[in-house]
Write a structure and sequence with these properties.
Largest sheet: 8 strands, parallel, barrel
Number of helices: 16
Shape: globular
Structural class: alpha/beta
Distance between the termini: 48 Å
CATH superfamily of the largest domain: Glycosidases
Bound molecules: (3S,4R)-3-hydroxy-2-oxopiperidin-4-yl beta-D-xylopyranoside
CATH class of the largest domain: Alpha Beta
Number of domains: 2
Number of strands: 18
């Protein structure tokens, strides 16, 4: 069954006090009326009308620390994958000592935004803690450790994960099994066992095997196909195949759709799980156009196969992408540029999902007159408090005919800090808060009060914390005076 998601739209933009006027100007010019997609339908809503989800990989620190990143993550996508937070090395760096903070944060963010979560990943050869890789464990002990790990992690998030990448990157390019901690000690038995343990821990989660260079037909994809076929024949709980899709410009496999189809025909779901399309940097207009065409090919291939459930991009913007650090000389692989502005690839994806978007970023005035939605007049305002010098700045980051998204950034100058914070304002024109993230907000009458989330109460000297919200408006949407205290 296809998953449909309620429509929520939110974008926010950093606007600190020190740069309040500048920020307001920059917002107007770069993001508000002028941004090509500011008033357009979010990708998640377009995808939902086509019966698929659209997701992205996220890091907790950026969700709470980079306002534009959080806004895009919360607004545009209906699914999130923790980029690193659920990997073994992240959750259990020291044996028996667990750190769930970032994974919990991402799950909470997703829930607050009515998003599903793809759990990534339980069994992998990479990003494991050194106590595990250097432990020289025998087969019985290692199998017990793996079982315990899967039970603990999948159990912790039981009921909150749409799909788990239970197993990641099992094969070599020629289709033989990759030598790894698991394969070397346990043979292939860990594969079916891991699926069974994950199913026991979270019976509702869809269980996937995920890999790269299996997107088109070929030896590696054949190996995965044969594995899934034999797992199905054994009655193992395998629900899906994840195609990572870390592509190179102009090299999306021509057999992508056929390959998706053959997995679907085996009786499993398929998802594009880590899509990015890298190019040699610097980018050019021609390369960015080609990239849009490549993204379109991927979206169309997924839409063409009923069991292709969704597409997850790997990293929100080119500033966040893992590509430049791993593929020397390559970058610009995502939908947003390093300033969080949508690229031609964003427009291409929106169009492939049935949306109509502008193709260029018009000037604010041109866009304002062309836009069916009233144009927000974002400004930032703030009120210093009790001598501490810390301030709160409010901005409208996106506005459409009935709703808008806003952001508040709490900033402390050198020499001042906060252990917790509370921000308030009056909505003087009948605006009504509908949703907030990275803070707990309530509205009573016209007054809105927001207190910090558990993880972002501490604002260090020279640092900041930010949160976002959605609200309804009608008539006018003036920027309120904000108090911090
Ligand atoms: C990458 C992350 O994006 C990086 O931040 C990290 O340093 C290394 O891992 N295949 C996967 C992902 O399944 O988990 C990888 O993510 C990218 C390749």
């Amino acid at each position: 069954m296809r998953h449909l998601f309620a429509r929520h739209a939110a974008r926010l933009k950093r606007a600190g006090l020190a740069t309040a006027v500048l920020a307001a100007t920059a917002l107007g010019a770069a993001v508000l009326p002028g941004a090509a997609h500011a008033a357009d339908t979010p990708l998640r809503d377009l995808a939902s009308t086509k019966g698929i989800y659209v997701g992205n990989a996220v890091a907790g620190g950026k969700l709470s620390g980079t306002a534009q990143y959080a806004a895009i993550a919360g607004t545009q996508f209906s699914s999130l994958t923790p980029e690193n937070a659920m990997k073994w090395g992240s959750v259990e760096a020291n044996r028996g000592t667990f750190n769930w903070a970032e994974a919990d944060q991402i799950v909470a963010f997703a829930q607050a935004h009515n998003q599903q979560v793809r759990g990534h990943t339980l069994v992998w050869h990479s990003q494991n803690p050194s106590w595990l890789t250097n432990g020289n464990f025998g087969a019985t002990e290692l199998s017990g450790i793996l079982q315990q790990h899967i039970a603990t992690e999948a159990g912790r998030y039981q009921g909150k994960i749409y799909a788990w990448d239970v197993l990641n990157e099992l094969f070599n390019e020629d289709g033989t099994y990759r030598t790894s901690l698991w394969y070397n000690t346990l043979g292939t038995g860990f594969i079916a066992n891991s699926l069974a343990w994950a199913h026991q821990a979270d019976p509702a989660a869809k269980l996937y095997i995920n890999d790269y260079n299996v997107e088109g037909l070929g030896a590696k994809s054949d190996a995965l196909y044969n594995l899934v076929k034999s797992l199905k024949a054994q009655g193992a709980p395998i629900d899906g195949v994840g195609l990572q899709a870390h592509f190179i410009l102009g090299q999306v496999p021509s057999t992508l759709q056929a390959n998706i189809q053959r997995f679907a025909d085996l009786g499993v779901d398929v998802a594009v799980t880590e899509l990015d399309i890298r190019m040699q940097t610097p980018s050019t207009a021609a390369k960015l156009t080609q990239q849009g065409a490549d993204y379109t090919t991927v979206v169309k291939a997924c839409l063409a196969v009923t069991r292709c459930k969704g597409i997850t991009g790997w990293d929100i913007s080119d500033a966040d992408s893992w590509v430049p650090s791993v593929f020397s000389g390559y970058g610009a692989a995502t939908l947003y540029d390093e300033s969080y502005q949508p690229k031609p690839a964003y427009q291409a994806v929106a169009t492939a999902l049935g949306g109509s978007t502008s193709t260029a970023s018009p000037s604010p005035s041109a866009s304002a007159s062309a836009s069916p939605s009233p144009s927000p007049t974002a400004t930032a305002t703030s009120t210093p408090t009790g001598g501490s010098g810390c301030t709160a700045a409010y901005s409208v980051s996106n506005q459409w005919n009935t709703g808008f998204s806003g952001a508040v950034q709490v900033s402390c100058p050198a020499g001042a800090s906060l252990a917790s914070w509370k921000v308030g304002w009056d909505f003087g024109a009948g605006q009504q808060l509908t949703q907030a993230w990275n803070a707990t907000c309530t509205q009573s009458g016209v007054h809105v009060t927001c207190t910090n989330a558990t993880w972002n109460g501490a604002v260090p000297a020279g640092g900041s914390a930010s949160f976002g919200f959605n609200a309804n408006w009608a008539g006018s949407n003036p920027v309120p005076v904000v108090t911090l205290g």
